[in-house]
Amino acid sequence: MNPSSLSAQTQTRKADHLRICLDEDVQFNSTTNGLERYRFSHCCLPELDWNEITLKTTFLGKQLLAPLLISSMTGGTEEAGIINQRLASVAQHYKIAMGVGSQRVVVEKPQVASTFAVRSRAPDILLFANLGAVQLNYDYGLDECLRLVDLLEADALILHLNPLQECIQPKGDTNFKGLLDKINHLCNKLQLPVIAKEVGNGISATMAEKLIAAGVTAIDVAGAGGTSWAKVESERAGNAQQRRMGMTFADWGLPTAECITSIRTIAPQVPLIASGGLRDGLDVAKAIALGADIAGLAWPFLQAAAQSEAAVDALVEVLIAEITTVLFCTGNATLKELKHSGALQRLG
User: Which of 7, 197, 256, 304 could form a disulfide with 315 if both were Cys (CB 3.0 to 4.6 A apart)?
Assistant: First the structure.
């Protein structure tokens, strides 16, 4: 396939993904993020001033005013560019982290780079570039990764792992053989942190251990319970087999809560991002109490950003208020205190 045909195909796919995630029911049906199995112990007398509670934290050496990540979503189309600009402006205002969607399309079609370039809107935020790890088996290497990082002026590079999505995606890239060695080589050459991230099916403790040994700096579990990319690709399917595959595997994956707790058992200190089906500040607080350092949300931010920058601002305001209320009603003044308080109890 010639480069222009490939770039057009990638751009069309990104437009399809955006439309489907906004307009169709592509959430997990029965598999949940697992956080409903936990409940905080209520403290009826916190002995705290709500206004003095702080959500400040540090992740990958950069201070955030709240433990929030606008998870990787989009880029590569005009609408995606508008969404990214709105997200970046709000991220800058609240000093929270942000990732962009897969930048593969930029390598194929450099003229869409502006739809990802948000640093002018958000000069101070923790910002993540993003590429599918499998592309390292399809002629992508250090030079392409450096180009994407430089374009974004990023603080770290996300390598996303999406084997199930590639199986169902029309003409998906399914050669994952030898990738761990290539990730190791990249981590050794790239002079900034590399984050391994799933896309909604979870990272097990076993795989996290291998990725950390390969040189990955941080893990984003991106567990099951939110958007099902099997369902997304089923909506795009060009034939009956792909449609069936998407529905067969619609609920495949490891729940987010399970990923957090199992990874923390084997890697107590690794920088850890919780994402996958988080919908509100209570989910965020539970994820942090389980051991995550920050929490990523995608679908709620996408829904808000499709409306307006004001809607994104309102979403961050309520998330911060919800997390703060959890701290207040558990008697904890900081996130560190919450993590070590034992206030989160497993039900049953």
Answer: 304
pTM given for the model: 0.96
pLDDT digits (tens, 9 = 90+) for 207-263: 999 999 999 999 999 999 999 999 999 999 889 999 999 999 999 999 999 999 999
The Cα 283–Cα 277 span in angstroms is 9
Q: How far is residue 105 from each of residues 3, 139, 194, 319, measured CA to CA in Å?
A: 11, 14, 20, 32
Which regions of the chain are under pLDDT 70?
1-7
pLDDT value at residue 274:
98
What integer pLDDT is reported at residue 12 of this predicted model?
Answer: 83
Q: Where are the alpha helices (DSSP H) in the chain?
A: 3-23, 78-94, 104-108, 142-152, 163-168, 179-189, 205-213, 229-236, 240-248, 256-266, 281-290, 299-307, 309-330, 335-339
Q: Which residue has tokens 């029911």?
A: 25
Q: Which residues contact 67 (CB under 8 A, 6 or more apart)?
A: 55, 57, 59, 284, 288, 293, 294, 295, 323, 335
DSSP string, 204-227: -HHHHHHHHHTT--EEE---BSSB
Question: Burial letters for 122-135: b for 16+ Cβ neighbours within 10 Å, e otherwise?
Answer: beebbbbbbbbbbb
What pLDDT is attached to residue 2? 54
Amino acid at 283: D
| Residue 92 contacts residue 119 (beta carbons within 8 Å) | no
**CA 116 to CA 193: how far, in whole Å?**
19
185 contacts: CB under 8 Å, gap ≥ 6: none
Percent of the chain with pLDDT over 90: 92
- Which pLDDT score is estimated for 3? 56
Domains parsed from the chain with CATH numbers: 3-309+323-346 (3.20.20.70)
Three-state DSSP string of 235-251: HHCCCHHHHHHHHHCCC
pLDDT number for residue 218:
98
